[in-house]
Amino acid sequence: MKVPFSWLKQYVDIDVTAEELEKKLFDCGFEVEELIDLSAEIDKVVVGVVTECVPQEGTHLHICKVDCGEYGHDIQISTGAPNVYEGMHTPAALDGSTLPGGVKIKAKPLMGIESNGMLCSGEELGLNDDLYPGAEVYGLLDLPKDTVPGTPIQQVVGLDDYIFDIAVTSNRPDCQSVLGIAREVAAVLGKPLKMPAIDYTESDTTDPRLSITVEAPDLCPRYIGHYVHNITPGPSPRWMRRQLALCGLRSISNVVDITNYVMLEIGQPMHAFDMDTLESCQIIVRRAKDGEEITTLDGKEFKLTPNNLVICDGSKPVALAGVMGGLNSEIKDTTTQLLFESAKFARDNIRKTARGLGQNTDASSHYEKGISEYTTELGMARALHLIQELDCGEVTATHFDCSAGAPREGKKFTATISGINAILGITVPTEAVLEILRRLQFEVTLEADGDTMQVTAPRWREDIEIGEPDLAEEVIREYGYDHIKPTFLKAAQVTTGGLTTVQKARAKAKRAMCAQGFYEAETLAFYADADLDMLHIAADAPERNVIRILNPISSNLTIMRTLLAPSLLNVVVDNLKKGNNDGRIFELSNIYIPKQQPVTELPEERLHLGFAAWGDGEDFFAVKGAVEALGTAFGAEMTVERATDVAWLHPGIAAYILCNGEKVGVFGKLANDVTSELKLPKDSRSNQNIYLGEIDWPKFYDLVPKALHYTPIPELAPVQRDLALVAPEETECGTLMAEMQRACKQLTKVELFDIYRGEKLGAGKKSMAFSLYFQPGDKPFAPEEIDRFVKKILGNLKFKLGIEIRE
Amino acid sequence: MEEKIKELRVAIEQAGAAVTNEAELSEFWQKFLSKNGAVAGLTKSLRDVPKEDRPAMGKTINEFKTWAEAQYQALSAQVEKAALAARNAAETVDITLPSKTRTTGNLHPITLVKNEIVDVFSGMGFEIYEGPEIEDDDHNFTRLNVPKNHPARDMQDTFYVAEDIVLRTQTSGGQIRVMDMEKPPIKVLVPGRVFRSDSDATHSPMFHQMEGLVVDKGITLCDLQGMLDKFVQALFGPEVKTRLRPSYFPFTEPSVEVDVSCFECGGKGCSLCKHTGWIEVLGAGVVHHSVLENCGIDPKVYSGFAFGIGIERIAMLKYGINNIGLMFENDLRFLKQFED
To answer: The complex's ipTM?
Structure first.
């Protein structure tokens, strides 16, 4: 919201500087995002009087002597401007001066002739005809003869002003106008507000043919129309043009300028229809018919639906309500009679129309934020007053006011001073509360108990809804938040807090992963089908049952993830591209599983622990070690089972992770066909050594022991025997170990310490050497007991697997 | 005989000086000190000494033998020391070669900040609750006093997955879920992921928030500031203070924006605080009566406050990170900087 300082001063006697006002507005809830000093771009440019003006023969130049008051009475400046004359008062940019856009002016010869500065045009000062009449004249800016030489030019051309760019919170649409901000300024400075004049006199003229009907009162709770005739189009007065220009609007003509001016000043979007174009002098506010068309003032054509509200004449739409008028009823230079519209439209409907059609205007922006009915009345009255003030038309007696029946007074409620203070936690003196509320134009009557107040909120404050908390906010923002004295839950009861066991376990899992050299990653919870494609996830795989975002911001972020692996693989690829050739990462985050398609209820959110490891130092067993360590951290045993059916993992180098025998996840080397398609330089793709894994966290956590329990330590040390077995190449170590343990319950630990292949063994054979540890109970084993165990183990291996001891 | 001893002493001294290793030492022992060695030979030749001289000579020979053995002991120690030195030299490594240990990983800065905040509030008696990330319209908006068509819905660009199901735009919905389950006194912290359809240098479509809620009898705005003072001091240092200023959130009334005095410059003004001395860190306010009512809590009896912290924002401030995108790129060179 941009508000010129000079404009604010029309309504409030501001006796503080712009900087001080900025601070005061900030304290009462209006952050000035930018305080624009209009004079700041210009420096050392002053009023100069041309005392001598000699044309330089053979050039287009004039050599001037310029009186710049205290800066020198006889400064020589050359100019090429044709309109220079002796006695002219014109802006002189002195040596070392600055012009808008950072232009620096220095004394330097112009076509060989000494020139100690530059005489300026209006344009060079950043002016236009609206900001300063005559600014757009070709040549030098001709200033009035009463301007005093040496006066800084900003003071003469009205650039000694500030623009406050104010952030208005969405609960305060009443402050989306100069008057709205002025109300706050008056309140915060404790000054009276001078309301803009809204008086006007209706002539006797009426036009009985005119009618206004609101057929959609739900979308148009208030519609005020007034007929004005004998329009005399022409330019607007200087003050109006300047104020519009300061807010960035160009002047068009008096009638159009009035509508824009009222929107800026009061916050009420106004519209004027050329009466001569209205079929049968009718105005009908209704929903558009399906497929109905309108061409708006800017020439754009729209096809409408019943969700759009239109203003129609007897036969066709003449305006897109709250957004823009129709080209067919536009005010022209030839317009002689018009109908003013000041209306309140449902903000949600205007928002949907403006967004849906991509037609966002100043008017729609005001309506989306919200217009009060008070503003609607005030806007019309102000526009009619301006018609008379500018003497550009006759305000007739034909006036319409269609209302859905909202009350014409502010909200009334009862509140107490003590209630306000109870919210704040401090005691604001009663007089201060009353004074602040009255300053904000609340009507307040204090009852005899000195506590209860009967309050009527200002009509424009539609944000006031629940009484005391609203008033508490009004009071404290004016009284000052620095009066709040911090206390530490003075009255509250003591509560226990902290993480739950489940939450602590997740924190522990993260630490366990860190201990294995994994860095925690944080990736977006959504990706695209392409990310599942990257992992070769089959079209009918459960991971393809995804939740789709209906309004994605990017084609890369369209589905909620069902697997962490694609996100982590993307991180690996990004790191490889950046030259991070090895690393380990993990993430403990949700995946999302829809309960039905299309989604009608909240989906299942399930935590997964995903991890990735890459680089020369990694192999399957390094990662397996990390998985086992995670199990150990939770007192659970992690075992593996070959996984050949996971699309994204190498069928020969992948395993399901079993926790206490139950499948909880999977990990392994990234499948070769996936690796070869990674978005990496072609020559580096095939060499990549990437491992990925994913654990279903709740499944794992359910299986781990929850309480620690002590098992007595055996008093005797285990007895070790080593065994070398010859087995066919395809025999898995785990099979042998499991079979050995099955054969003998005293065998508490088996460790593989060597694998040998050689000619002596024959092709397709390997020798695996194990250390076997037998745990004695109370008594030590006799040597023949151990021999018996070994015999039993070997017997079992031979019987079950046909495997024998190496001779 | 005495002459013989003298010669042998010279021989031993000369041979000893030549011993440098274990083999030579052994040779030395064989030659002089073994059963058949030269020193033993002296004892044997005692027979040739006249009987009356034997005791004195025997003593001399014994003294000489002790001396010779001492010579051997010294040589042995010397050889052993040399051997150790040689082995040490041979085993010496280049200690500047790269180390082999795998370094431990570390947590993400978002987790670090989250943990830190959780610790502070856990100590104040706050429970930690995590609501669903995919949330219904009711919890994300309506019951937070943001009915359909409310302009505040425009404050947040919402991702929809169904007509009434959204990716939660704020952790504030956790307030409602907690108040549905528990009655006052309530102190709860709701950390989690939130989503908004916005993406630039300061916005990510996914980020993290931490909602705090206190509901009890007699809770005031003063309590809010008191608690937030403790929080920011724990996070940014004991000298830091808070400043409240008016703001607007649909679910609190009054609503405030909370600034902390700049922990970089102490409030004097620097580039971090954009020369204002203050840094905006969170939004807060007194829980709106409608929100309490929506959860069956009587606002005439109970009151409360709520606050919402942007975790990325705190992390960026605390660690001097200038682009939120870095948080989700997971470049190892970034992640490795947050050892804690």
So the answer is: 0.87
